[in-house]
What we know:
33% of the residues lie in helices and 33% in strands. Strands 1, 2, 3, 4, 5, 6 and 7 form a seven-stranded antiparallel beta sheet that branches. Strand 5 and strand 6 form a beta hairpin. It is of the alpha+beta class. It is globular, with a radius of gyration of 14 Å.
Amino acid sequence: MCCQYAALCCCFLNISRSFWYAVEDAYLCFDDSLEVLAVNAAAQSLFGYTAGELIGRNAGDLIRPVADGGEKEMIDNLFSYSDWKSAKADWRDVNVTTKDGSTLRVAVTSVNSSSNGVSVATALFRLISDDGEVVTMG
Length: 138
């Protein structure tokens, strides 16, 4: 099932499946109910879960706004862009919760696509260093 949804996400986003799995940035693909549909290896490393543990989880349980009370705005932002050019210009700070309960500060941007009633968003995550710089995972 993971490969099926990864293919769907890649199709929507016009990227190759080999890119999806090889890229150093962490990607999560989820639907409009925030159910995680597909992940890449970097996302497994970031969150500390296997793909099987991440698939089906609610992305809202993994991604939290930095400021209290900002959940709705954060979710709205995850579905606000339909092209990578716009999305890559708008990185937002969020916290992610890892399997061991740690909280990491990351930057996230995302793109959404819809086709035949199916709506998905793919979020790209990058760590934020102690000095506030956004860095790739690799």
